[in-house]
């Protein structure tokens, strides 16, 4: 009898010790297997004794098993089934704390975005019970569920007003704040406000308090620093971070997808596409807490690589969640709006009306949550969309101006560069140049004006300066024209960028004896018309027809270089009209 009492007391102590560590929120495959076995050993020992007083603690211990299973992504279905069984047992007990643990199990085993609203409801109930019964082990998991859910819904303001004054303030005073998502929310708020320096200091302080590497704090620090670096326009360390996360969390498909995306952006196409082939088919990717962010990255990849069929499939998967923000992990960092990615993907697919709707939604959502960097990015995306498709009802240059002002004020260097007005060159129906500063160019040199037209007609192809000299100064020796030609080039550069905001070679590139326009850095109506006219979808062709305001270089009726370009554009325009009439 004494031995049984001793064994029962030993089982109770082991359960208490296990539970005192709290519910794990981030386990790797390697640590999950050992942790599951440890939990199961404790459960077996408890259940071998008649210990009614530890019934509620038994439920608390059981939550760790599905949590570990889910974290490792090795058997999500079994984890969900265990959570259902736990809910049933908690109902029979009729105890609020048991119900809270059962709700936590349910929420953690259903991380997909289709359960977002229900997870938020469950999280609020969990935190209310944790407060009433002073159960600190429930607080981190409650906040993990709540932050992720509110972030997906774009309800960050409600977290500001309803939580930081009450529960979060109390949670931040608990032991091990670095393991509590509520404490990390302060970093997220600084990030949303565009305070990169303050956010990094806060994240570093929490990370330094972490008792061990590889903890939840390490994962949170990595993702938040990634957001901060993006805001600063820096990508240093991105590849190393993705590689490290891929090694430490091989079951999380977000990291190889992100690595493939980075490599494709860097032009390492073979490496990126090989890594993509190692991923399972889209419909087999686990709907875990990384599912939405993984699909968003794969959709970004589909814009630059892959088949139309794959892009359409990704659009279909993301479309139900177009009004969601995209959380990473347990919800204290995120990668912007699903709407932005959908809009850019739909543009690639030729779905221009749908693309515009989603790009406008991205602006509205990022403004509502006060995410300054993401709002500026969304404004730039919609502005560039409007310019590409000549949509006069989109105030593109006003959007760019506002995004640039915000970005310069908050130190978003890369976004500030993107938000600069691209100089506009019009040659369809009349010649006009609007500078980088938004002012109409005033020409002091007729030769420079004519040279710019010829450079536009060359479509960005590097051409020998002697070809241009022969047209501008017929009969004169090229050897004596070098200085005059250089002056003409400089006049063009001043017309495009009077305040010297860009590098000398940014708009007009000189390469040895050749010169060309950097057409990607300019808004040239002829180039946009040709690109739209070549697309097969009706929306692009209608936009091309609208953009064609008249013949190209109409004020140059007889020059050979203008006639060829003008005839080609007119031919394309006639074909567009005929196809629309048929």
Outline the structure in words.
The chain has 582 residues and is mainly alpha-helical. A hairpin with a 5-residue loop joins strand 3 (424-426) and strand 4. It is 64% helix and 4% strand. Strands 4-3-8 form a three-stranded mixed sheet. The protein has a three-stranded antiparallel sheet with strand order 5-7-6. It has a two-stranded antiparallel ribbon with strand order 1-2. The longest helix is centred in the last third of the chain and has 22 residues, at 560-581. Helix 19 (352-368) packs antiparallel against helix 20 (372-388). The model has no long low-confidence stretch (mean pLDDT 81). The protein starts with a helix and ends with a helix. It is elongated and about 115 Å long. It has helices spanning 2-20, 29-47, 55-72, 76-93, 96-108, 116-133, 138-153, 156-162, 167-171, 181-192, 196-209, 216-231, 238-248, 254-265, 269-277, 291-302, 308-318, 338-348, 352-368, 372-388, 396-410, 413-418, 446-457, 465-472, 482-496, 525-534, 538-547, 560-581; strands spanning 325-327, 334-337, 424-426, 432-434, 463-464, 508-511, 514-517, 523-524.
Rounded to the nearest angstrom, the distance between the terminal CA atoms is: 95 Å
The proportion of residues forming helix, as a percent range, comes to 55-70%
Stretches where pLDDT is under 50 for at least 5 consecutive residues are none
- Give the class from helix and strand content and strand pairing: mainly alpha
- Large-scale geometry: elongated
Largest sheet: 3 strands, mixed
| Spatial order of the strands forming the largest sheet | 4-3-8
Task: State the total count of DSSP E strands.
Answer: 8
The radius of gyration is 30 Å
Percent of residues in beta strands: under 5%
Mean pLDDT: 81
Number of helices: 28
